[in-house]
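Researcher: Re-running this chain for the archive, since the previous output was lost when a drive failed. Same request as before.
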Amino acid sequence: PIVGFEAMVGRGRFLHEFWRRLIAKLHADDLKKLERVAPERIDDDCCLYLRFDKQLAHSGELALTESGDAIHLKLKVAAYPARREVAIGLVKRLVGERSGLQDEVQA
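Model: Regenerated structure tokens:
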């Protein structure tokens, strides 16, 4: 069956925790991919669209996917001013910071 689930995380600290956990679950290759494809995944309303492999997610692992059985995630990027270019820069910065931290942990 197809199940739809919608949630809204509005408070800053909860949002930061959600983002931290999401990034922590991604492998270094997916973080680099996310940083690279961010411009094509963010629309003019500053929404970031991601797709995760549903089978891997069921086993506790997150992996970006382009097609197939996927979990779709839409994140509104709190960019100021609310422009696509600003949102892209924020996402790239956050992913870059996190992937740098993961590189340090793996070294």
